[in-house]
């Protein structure tokens, strides 16, 4: 068959394109994607932390009139609630809905900057502890509480950070 009559595939036509090849988007590695996700999560947490610091929350008081706290895995958690409904759900979950719950309204920043450092050992704040829609933990790590007050705070690796905070009050 003469060369002029030979059938060519469409792929061969693509090979004949003149000019530089089209620019390709750089490949994103899984490490880069994970780093992007981590940075996005850090930004999202920073927004939540800032919002918490500016918000007045309800902190129940124990029988002695102290802020209600619970210890889990060596970390003392001050229990705070975003509203009365969240506190009521907590009381129901504990089987203590029938008793009166006295609480104090405290600014989130005051809890993190003043109250947490007063507790002995690693401490943080558990917002809406035990809620079904997911509460929020503000653990004893640098950037949340004053890490200089707790030598172990910056390297806290406790299971309490990965699950709901439950406790019997001041244990």
Textual characterization of the structure:
Helix content is 30%, strand content 16%. The chain is built from four helices and six strands. Strands 2-3-5-6 form a four-stranded mixed β-sheet, covered by helices on one side.
List the helices and strands and how they pair.
Elements: H1 10-15, H2 30-54, E1 56-60, E2 69-72, E3 75-80, H3 84-93, E4 103-107, H4 108-118, E5 123-127, E6 136-138
Parallel strand pairs: 3-5
Antiparallel strand pairs: 1-4, 2-3, 5-6
Q: Main beta sheet, described?
A: 4 strands, mixed
Give the total of beta strands. 6
Helix segment count?
A: 4
Oligomer: single chain
Mean pLDDT: 78
Proportion of beta-strand residues: 15-25%
Radius of gyration, taken over Cα atoms and rounded to an integer in Å: 28 Å
- Describe the global form: elongated
Gap from first CA to last CA: 94 Å
Order of helices and strands: HHEEEHEHEE
Strand arrangement within the widest β-sheet reads 2-3-5-6
The assigned structural class equals alpha+beta
Low-pLDDT runs of 5+ residues are 150-171
The helix content, as a percent range, equals 25-40%
């Amino acid at each position: 068959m003469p060369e002029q009559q030979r059938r060519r595939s469409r792929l061969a036509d693509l090979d004949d394109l003149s000019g530089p090849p089209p620019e390709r988007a750089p490949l994103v590695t899984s490490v880069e994607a994970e780093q992007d996700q981590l940075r996005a999560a850090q930004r999202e947490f920073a927004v939540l932390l800032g919002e918490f610091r500016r918000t007045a929350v309800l902190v129940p008081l124990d029988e002695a009139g102290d802020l209600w706290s619970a210890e889990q895995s060596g970390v003392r958690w001050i229990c705070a609630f975003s509203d009365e409904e969240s506190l009521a759900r907590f009381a129901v979950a504990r089987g203590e809905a029938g008793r009166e719950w006295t609480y104090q309204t405290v600014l989130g920043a005051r809890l993190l900057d003043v109250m947490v450092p007063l507790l002995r050992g690693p401490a943080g704040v558990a917002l809406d502890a035990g809620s079904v829609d997911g509460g929020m933990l503000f653990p004893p790590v640098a950037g949340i509480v004053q890490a200089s007050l707790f030598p172990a705070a910056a390297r806290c690796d406790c299971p309490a950070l990965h699950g709901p905070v439950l406790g019997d009050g001041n244990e």
